[in-house]
Write a structure and sequence with these properties.
The complex is a heterodimer of chains A (409) and B (321). By secondary structure, chain A is mainly alpha-helical. Chain A has two domains: 293 residues, Cytochrome-c3 Hydrogenase, chain B, CATH 1.10.645; 26 residues. Chain A has 18 helices and eight strands. In chain A, α2 runs antiparallel to α3 and α5 packs antiparallel against α6. With 321 residues, chain B is an all-alpha fold. The longest helix of chain B is centred in the first third of the chain and has 32 residues. Classes of the chains: A mainly alpha (409), B mainly alpha (321). At the A-B interface, α4, α5 and α7 of A face α5 and α8 of B. Chain A: This is Membrane bound hydrogenase, NiFe-hydrogenase large subunit MbhL. Chain A: GO terms for molecular function: ferredoxin hydrogenase activity; NAD binding; nickel cation binding; oxidoreductase activity, acting on NAD(P)H; quinone binding.
């Protein structure tokens, strides 16, 4: 862009976008007339790192691809690995996995709702929604032991079972979030200010959505019925008739704007509650790991040669993993495709002609995740000071126990 | 000018700064509590100013330096002058007789104008967009603000704030003009967040859109001066509303007769309480309950809705006089 142009830079240092990506918007008055999206600032080589480790280590490395979808990448990874290795997870594990994945969807959608509210200066809404989000994070910690990187999935099953006491907590959570979504519909979808700021903003037509190959709620808000859970069902999703949530089913038409995507996300929370309820009610008995011995599992991986592609519907859209095993205990090829990579394509056409005030909403609309695009970074401080594994583990165990005590009360 | 006037002229701005920052602290605290947060301590704005005064003042390379540095001083000076025109409870305004409501209107405008000019002078695209927005917003809310003042001029046949304060407006209105004054009050309450650049009308400083807009390039002492003038303006605006619409003294409301120092202390505290109530109602509650409007939406609100309310109020006042 010429130096004399009157443009505003958004990202990597901007209150609307704090991630390593740069959007240069040339403006005339309040209108954006030219947009340039520059990405690829952080190359982190996580796939290469994964190819140097064994499959179990790589699985937990895949959790670090994204800070929010920390179950989506391992989910896609285990589906792919199981396909490639010919392992089938026990039925109980196949029901536990969707419970965790849907809990994550609830927390991710609530996080997004808070972010979009903040982008339009509606901080009260942000605090209210994030206060509601705490319950699902606490529950995830109760079920998995961790609040962010859950480390609960394993090739051929899950590492932690759902106990009786957990089921009560899950039921309580379902009741709580049904009430919350009803309130959200009342407060967010009926709010005149929210409507005024989102109706017609970031409007993505069905044709453009198809052309840009957007995925997840971004595509569904534009009216495209696409959802991996519906199109290629796996685990317990195969037993549940999951239907993609599209605005035309809710209000009769899909405009594909920021209001519609809000609606889609709120209704997806309700859908997740239904899925969790079904899985909890129909949780089969039995073991949770196909091969409980990790040494045996690694030996099987070493013996097996094969490749597969697997996908999981993450809160932001489809996550696709490709894995190839040929005689090592880890993947010889690992390739990851994250939803933000597709969705960021929609920024340029949506920003063109938009108002300056709408830029943060357009930017937040797709729930961008740069760490999904650019994978992980390894950092070493000059002083060499790092928080030790023992310390972090002790703190995590302490907190989990505290939450367990609180739930029992 | 008597020594008493000189004393007030010095004491009022100091008191104004103290109260402005305190009210800002209370506002932040209440807003935090409304959103389930603990919030900062009430003294936080004082620490903010102290910290800003200690920080380096950076002037952008392509800024118009003298203009960039002069505007915070102008904004601060105008807010200080503004304080001298407001009767503090039962105390008379130090500059009483040297100006009236029209001067107050201009002093309020001057601060916004100083911020806009400072924004343009900084040479930053964020600031320039912010300054443009501020100008549009000023053009939108000045009309209802002026209508309120004309309404009072119609009633009192005077623009003097002291005259208005000494004779409560509600005692001299008929039912029709009373309704008109009420509508003018509503219009002024809606104008208040825009005048003070608070949500939902903080469009010129929209943090997530244009990174604080006009203030994006300001730092250190310059930012501290804008911060102080903003705090003082908040207090002054609420005080003006109290003087215009809720001038009833403590003795009048509760029917007690006070004298001496007690009279001044009680009436002073009563005045501060009324200002606080208005401040919370017009600023804290509103900014916590709303999202930010777009500039054209805000303009429409003022030009259509608020103007209609204000003009209807003015018509009723005119009919009732």
């Amino acid at each position: 862009m010429p130096k004399s142009a009157y443009y505003i830079p958004i990202g990597p240092i901007h209150p609307a976008l704090k991630e390593p990506i740069r959007v240069e918007a040339e403006i005339e008055g309040e209108k954006v007339v030219k947009v340039d999206v520059k990405r690829g600032f952080a190359h982190r080589g996580i796939e290469y790192m994964g190819m140097k480790r064994n499959a179990i280590q790589t699985l937990y490395l895949s959790e670090r691809i994204c800070g929010i979808c920390s179950i989506s990448h391992p989910y896609a990874f285990v589906i792919t690995a199981e396909k490639a290795l010919g392992i089938e997870a026990p039925p109980r594990a196949q029901y536990i996995r969707p419970i965790i994945a849907e809990l994550e969807r609830i927390h991710s959608h609530l996080l997004w709702l808070g972010v979009i509210a903040h982008e339009m200066g509606f901080d009260s809404l942000l605090f209210w929604i994030w206060k509601g989000r705490e319950k699902v994070l606490d529950l995830l910690e109760l079920l998995t032991g961790n609040r962010i990187n859950y480390s609960v999935f394993m090739i051929g099953g899950v590492r932690r079972d759902i106990k009786e006491s957990h089921i009560k907590a899950l039921k309580d959570m379902i009741t709580y979030y049904w009430e919350l979504t009803e309130k959200m519909k009342e407060i967010i979808l009926s709010d005149p200010v929210y409507k005024a700021r989102t109706r017609g903003v970031a409007q993505l037509s069905k044709e453009l959505a198809l052309k840009l190959n957007v995925v997840g709620p971004t595509a569904r808000a534009a009216g495209l019925r696409m959802d991996i859970r519906q199109d290629m069902p796996y685990d317990a999703y195969a037993d549940i008739d999951v239907r993609a949530v599209v605005p035309q089913d809710i209000v009769g038409e899909a405009r594909g704007d920021a209001y519609d995507i809000t609606m889609v996300r709120i209704y997806e929370i309700e859908q997740s509650l239904d899925i969790i309820e079904y899985c909890v009610d129909n949780l089969p008995e039995g073991k949770i790991l196909a091969i409980p011995n990790y040494v045996a599992l690694l030996a099987k991986i070493r013996r097996t040669k094969g490749e597969a592609i697997g996908a999981h519907e993450a809160p932001r859209g489809e996550v696709v993993h490709y894995l190839k095993f040929d005689g090592r205990d880890g993947p010889s090829v690992w390739k990851v495709i994250a939803p933000s990579y597709n969705n960021i394509n929609s920024w340029a056409p949506l920003l063109l002609g938009a108002e300056v005030a709408d830029i943060p909403i357009v930017v937040a609309y797709i729930d961008p995740c740069m760490c999904c695009n650019d994978r992980v970074a390894l950092l070493k401080t000059p002083e060499g000071r790092v928080l030790g594994y023992e310390y972090i583990h002790r703190k995590a165990v302490e907190k989990t126990r505290r939450i367990e005590r609180e739930v029992k009360k | 000018m008597t020594p008493e006037t000189v004393f007030y002229a010095v004491a009022f701005p100091i008191l104004g700064i103290f109260l402005g920052l305190t009210y800002k602290g209370i506002d932040r605290r209440i807003s935090a509590r409304m959103t389930s947060r603990i919030g900062p301590p009430i003294r936080q704005p004082f620490w903010d100013v102290g910290k800003l005064l200690l920080k380096e003042t950076v002037v952008p390379e392509n800024a118009v330096k003298w203009l960039f540095n002069a505007m915070p001083v102008l904004a601060f000076a105008s807010s200080m002058t503004l304080l001298l025109y407001i009767p503090f409870g039962v105390l008379r305004a130090p500059l009483e007789g040297y100006g009236d409501l029209i001067v107050i209107l201009y002093l309020l405008t001057l601060q916004s104008l100083a911020m806009a000019v400072g924004g343009f002078a900084s040479g930053s695209p964020f600031s320039s967009v912010g300054a443009q927005r501020e100008m549009v917003l000023m053009m939108s809310y000045e009309m209802p603000l002026a209508t309120v003042i004309v309404g009072f001029a119609l009633l009192y046949k005077s623009f003097s704030l002291t005259t208005i304060a000494s004779n409560p407006v509600w005692n001299m209105v008929s039912p029709v003009s009373g309704l008109g004054v009420l509508l003018l009050f509503v219009a002024l309450l809606v104008v208040t967040p825009a005048e003070l650049a608070k949500l939902p009308f903080d469009i010129a400083e929209a943090e997530t859109e244009i990174a604080e807009g006009m203030l994006a390039e300001y730092s250190g002492r310059n930012l501290a001066l804008f911060y102080l003038s903003d705090a003082v303006r908040g207090f002054a605006m609420a005080a003006i509303e109290v003087v215009l619409f809720i001038p009833f003294t403590f003795s009048y409301v509760f029917g007690v007769s006070l004298s001496g120092a007690t009279f001044y202390v009680i009436e002073g505290l009563w005045f501060l309480f009324k200002v606080l109530v208005i401040y919370i109602a017009a600023v804290t509650v509103v900014r916590t309950s709303f999202g930010r409007f777009r500039i054209e939406q805000a303009s429409r609100i003022f030009w259509v809705h608020v103007n209609l309310i204000a003009l209807l109020g003015l018509a009723l006042v005119w009919l009732g006089v």
